[in-house]
Amino acid sequence: MDPAIIIPVSMFASIFGVFYLFFSTRNRERLALIEKGESAEIFKARLDRASPIWKVVLLNLGLLLIFMGISFLVGNALETNTVIPDEIAYLAPMFFLSGISLLLGFYLTKKLKL
């Protein structure tokens, strides 16, 4: 069998397996609640408590892109003004500043009125 076909087939099989397990387990849980006579209201999202996830995604994505742009500027400054190799001069600020942006996004998300 060609090794190039094994990777897409195994990727499809694993994604299918994850979704199958998720939906079959969810169905079993709900059927067990119905058999016991319990209310299945815990699975319904309340509109008053539903958090607007798009605000969190946009905040974190915006911060990440801003800090990635800043990291390119810092990397360029490190490359031209120091003897640090090019790969390290660009990669180190990217990882450092993207981590800072995600932490800042986490703290700003906690302050949002969700």
From TrEMBL:
Domain DUF6249: 6-110
Domain of life: Bacteria
Organism: Zunongwangia endophytica
Keywords: Membrane, Transmembrane, Transmembrane helix
Keyword Membrane: yes
Name the record gives this protein: DUF6249 domain-containing protein
Transmembrane segments: 6-23, 56-78, 90-109
